[in-house]
Amino acid sequence: MIARLHPRMADIDAAQWDALLADQPQANPFLRHAYLQALESSASACPETGWTPCHVTLHREGEDAVIAAAPMYLKSHSWGEYVFDFAWARAYAAHGRAYYPKALIAVPFTPVPGPRLLARNAADRAQLITALPAIWRKLEVETAHVLFLDEQQTQALRDAGWLQRQGVQFHWHNRHPATLQPFTDFDDFLSSLQRDKRRKIRQEMRRVAEAGVTYRVLRGAAITAADWAFFRACYETTYLEHGNAPYLTAAFWEAMRTTMPDAWLLIVAMRAGQPIACSLLGMHERDDGIQTVYGRYWGALQRVDLLHFDLCYYQTIAWCIAHRVQRFEGGAQGEHKLARALLPAPTHSAHWIADAHFAAALKEHLAQESQAQADYTSLLAQHSPFRRG
Question: In terms of CATH architecture, what is 2-168+345-381?
Answer without folding.
Answer: 3-Layer(aba) Sandwich (3.40)
